[in-house]
Write a structure and sequence with these properties.
With 457 residues, the protein is mostly beta strands. It contains five helices and 32 strands. The strands form five sheets. Strands 9, 10, 11, 12, 13, 14, 15, 16, 17, 18, 19, 20, 21 and 22 form a 14-stranded mixed sheet that branches. A nine-stranded antiparallel sheet has the order 1-2-3-4-26-25-27-23-24. The longest helix has 13 residues. 47% of the residues are buried.
């Protein structure tokens, strides 16, 4: 039954429906909208397949998820090593399934460099990375306490105590250390801190619950005496390393000893700068992107958009946004590049921003594009829903964002629509009608019901 549901969902996403026509305006040009299909993955979460005809041909997929509906939940995926491990979006979904999540739809997320995802990242209440504010990177955060979505600049402040007394706190987590900074390095960063000597202090700490919490204090036990002027200290399994090259920090911490207790509290995790700022006290999911595309239902200035890679060229794009209630998560993936020539041209920065406005976003954020752009649904299994532009298929990226079905909610997933009496039509898996299908795998449509059929000749 699960396999049948998946096949029906895939067919519904690929095939034309009878939804009414409409027009969208992108960068001053009108486009005729043809919805090739829609599928409800569960109550409040719907995926649409759309083609646009106008100044250029476009093919895109977008999802609207009402987070107030029972069963809808957002999770992010991050690899064990954020700097070196790349994973495709379909493979991320499978890894989340292996952890017990019922994944229904997902996309690629943050842009990345040799230091991993560029923006701040929190996953399942674990702080993966707190990026430097100097990057001016943005993030999207989910407040699971009230099911709201917030987009903008990220600010995280920490407080710290050593054996119950106030002391210096880390400034960032899992980023390269600069002069005067105190950084916490976890195994997500690698096997060692990769730091220089330069009058430094590094000390190994063991977190009581194995992770650094985003929503409550984390208690660490000092495991060994500080290493002065050592550089690139190994990060033991299950531990973190506190690293600094500040003279004041070194003076305050040089006498710590095994068994001492160091406590770190995230005093404020906030997202601000878009249309609705928000301070998180229970932020369990946060993921980066840049630049902002839409603020207060208006496209941002060219000065902001021009920070996008290939901002004035048509490329595959991934973007995410929220509506005026901040309870709906809206994301889109647009195909492009030569691999999709004649089918989808891709969008420039103006067009993807305007697309998100047409989809009802008051705020929207750019995610990684080009060959990274990928959307996946449960119906696709190991394959993406779109046609990623890399020659080898979906690209291995650093992280992703997924809508999952909470099996404790009591919501019953959507089933197939009724099948009225109508002529039978066949389409290939790209959604192109085939009048005389030869042997192979085809989508069979009769009226409003679709399924996958194997034809043997």
């Amino acid at each position: 039954m699960k396999q049948l549901y998946s096949l029906i969902l895939m067919a519904a996403l690929l095939l034309p429906s009878t939804l009414s026509a409409e027009t969208w305006t992108l960068n001053g040009k009108d486009y005729e909208v043809e919805r090739l299909g829609e599928a409800v993955t569960f109550d409040g979460v719907t995926i649409y397949t759309v083609t646009l005809s106008g100044a250029a041909k476009q093919k895109l997929w977008y999802c609207v998820a009402d987070l107030t509906k029972p069963g809808a939940r957002v999770v992010t995926y991050n690899p064990e090593n954020i700097r070196t491990t790349g994973t495709t979006v379909p493979a991320m979904a499978q890894k989340l399934v292996d952890r017990g999540f019922d994944c229904r739809v997902g996309i690629n997320a943050d842009l990345y460099s040799t230091y991993g995802p560029i923006g701040s990242t929190i996953s399942g209440g674990e702080i993966i990375k707190i990026a430097k504010t100097a990057t001016a990177w943005r993030s999207i955060g989910i407040d699971n306490s009230d099911h709201t979505v917030h987009i903008g600049n990220v600010s995280v402040n920490f407080g710290a105590k050593l054996n119950g007394k106030q002391t210096y706190a880390p400034t960032y987590i899992n980023v390269p250390r600069a002069t005067g900074e105190m950084i916490l390095y976890t195994s997500r960063w690698g096997t060692n801190t990769a730091t220089a000597v330069e009058n430094s202090l590094e000390v190994v700490l063991e977190p009581a619950e194995g992770i650094i919490h985003s929503d409550r204090p984390t208690t660490f036990t000092v495991k060994s005496s500080p290493v002065i002027n050592g550089g690139s200290l190994a990060i033991p399994a299950g531990c973190v390393v506190l690293s600094t090259n500040s003279a004041a920090h070194i003076k305050a911490l040089q006498d710590v000893k095994p068994g001492d207790i160091y406590e770190v509290t995230p005093s404020k995790v906030s997202v601000s700068g878009a249309s609705k700022g928000h301070a998180f006290v229970e932020c369990t999911e946060l993921i980066g992107g840049d630049p902002l595309l839409v603020v207060n239902s208006a496209r941002v200035s060219d000065g902001i958009l021009s920070s996008m890679p290939n901002w004035d060229s048509r490329r595959p794009r991934t973007a995410i946004g929220t509506d005026a209630t901040h309870t709906k998560l809206i994301f889109a993936v647009v195909d492009g590049d030569s691999k999709n020539s004649g089918v989808s041209a891709g969008m420039n920065a103006h067009e993807i921003a305007d697309l998100m406005i047409n989809l009802g976003c008051v705020d929207a954020l750019n995610f990684d594009g080009g060959g990274s752009s990928c959307i996946w649904t449960k119906a696709c299994g190991k394959n993406p829903l779109n046609n990623p532009s890399d020659s080898n298929g979906p690209r291995a990226v650093r992280n992703g964002l997924f809508i999952v079905y909470d099996t404790t909610s009591g919501v019953i997933p959507a089933t197939a629509v009724d099948n009225p009496d109508a002529p039978i039509e066949y389409f290939n898996l790209q959604g192109v009608k085939v009048d005389n299908p030869a042997g192979g795998l085809y989508i069979r449509r009769q009226g409003n019901q679709s399924s996958i059929e194997i034809i043997n000749n």
